[in-house]
Every structure is written in structure tokens, then in C-alpha cells.
Design a protein that fits this description.
Layout: H1 13-22, H2 25-41, H3 48-65
Helix pairs in contact: 1-2, 1-3, 2-3
């Protein structure tokens, strides 16, 4: 069974960090939206803290690009 058939795919830190590095705000916002959706669907997952930390960096980067 693939991850995509189980709901939102876990947004590991690297894709979020790559979006930040790209400077592409559309890509950054999409990664953020995907990550937040994943967090809602997987509230107790072991990677929850990692994803939240990456999202904080993403939000900071978006704040500096506005």
C-alpha cells in the first residue's frame, strides 16, 4: 500500500527546507498547507515535532518574504 492511498503523505523536513531554500513562496505555502493537513490527520505520529519545527522555519521564511 502506498502512502498516497493512506491519506496525506508525511511532510518530512527536507521537502519543507527545500521549499524554503527555493524562495518560491507558492511552493512554500503549498508545503505548509500539506504539512498542516498531515499534522491534523496524524496528531500522535512520532515525527510530529520534526514537522512542527520545519513549519516554524517555513513560517519565519514566509514572514521575511512578505
Amino acid at each position: 500500500m502506498s502512502d498516497s492511498s493512506m491519506g496525506p503523505i508525511r511532510p518530512y523536513g527536507p521537502p519543507i527546507m527545500e521549499a524554503i531554500a527555493s524562495g518560491d513562496t507558492t511552493r512554500m505555502r503549498q508545503q505548509g498547507e500539506n504539512a498542516r493537513q498531515w499534522l491534523k490527520v496524524n496528531p500522535g505520529h512520532e515525527s510530529h515535532g520534526e514537522v512542527q519545527a520545519a513549519l516554524r522555519k517555513l513560517d519565519e521564511a514566509l514572514g521575511s518574504t512578505s
